[in-house]
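Progress against Task 2.4 (sequence-to-structure conversion) is shown through the following example record, which the project officer requested during the mid-term review.
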Amino acid sequence: MIDYHSKSFSVQDHDTVISSDQQQSENDAILMDEDESSNQQDEDDGLENSDIVDEIVSSVVHGNTDIEIEPTLSDISEVNVVKEFIKKGCGCRIDNGGQCSLKFSFEHIMDVRSQCLSLSHDELDLVILGQIMSNTNLSTATAPNPGHANKQRQKSYSKYSHGSEQICSRMFLFLHTIGKFRLNSLVASFKLNGLTVRIHGNSNRKPHNALSLSSLEYCVKFLLNYADLNAVLLPGRIPGYSKMDIKLLPSSVSKHGIWQLYKNAAASSEPVRTLAYSTFNKTWKSLLPSIIIMKPMSDLCWTCQQNSTAILRAANQPDIEKSAQIKVAQDHLLLVQLERSYYKATCDSCRLQITNHFSSNSCFDPPPPHCNT
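Structure tokens generated for the chain above:
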């Protein structure tokens, strides 16, 4: 017999599933529309931000920016210097009794000075040398004047100009942010060498306080002899050291102590100049980097060094030999830990006994808890 009730129930269930699928598809469509709208909003925001960045760059390039930039202390100081100079003036009478500093605006002076300050030392020298070459009279005779005979020129003279305006020397120095001594040096260099970059007189010259070769050789020989007597060579490759050809000095000594020994030894040698402590360290580091002082954590016992060397040399050996070497090293470390524990227990027991002894006798004060007994 057919169960119509169950049949009708399954059809109703099927209709329910269809309606739920339709609802789910509608929800998915809504979510997709929301995602698309959010992505479109992000793209619009990105385009808006890029437009803002392009506008800022364009405004900065064309010089019409309205962005407020907080000035630094050097900028404020430069503005005050220019304002003070314009207020006082250059003090010349070139322009029909007027001052040449009045020919230029505040913004123009600031622009020229900022450009000169941004140049390097040699670049600014070349700029000023170009001005000197174009404005300096280097003729050997004076110009003929009515009623005056030509004479041999005693020295050359310069006329300073900026753009098409003639200016005084003080205004020229202020615009190019230099002093009178540097200008005179550039003029002398131009007369002697022409339009070339100046070379300092001390270039390629040995300093008067330079160390002699004999002093350096004595320092190096002292360190080599000290290392031969006190240094220890590595038995093999040890963890913590990238090289194997180094000489390890005991960790109980210091560089200052070795320098004191060197100082006393160099005092007896008259032609040898004693190196200062800082120069001694620099010479040691640059000429003898293979001689170093051991760190306290690298002071291993001879058994530990042998075990470390054996483990490193067993890298390409069978696993049985590797395990055997590692077991030997572990047994040694366990033994050392037991010895250390016994030592600590013995120290604690002795310290307790001494404290009890002093506490039983009231005439004695017990030692402090961290006293080495």
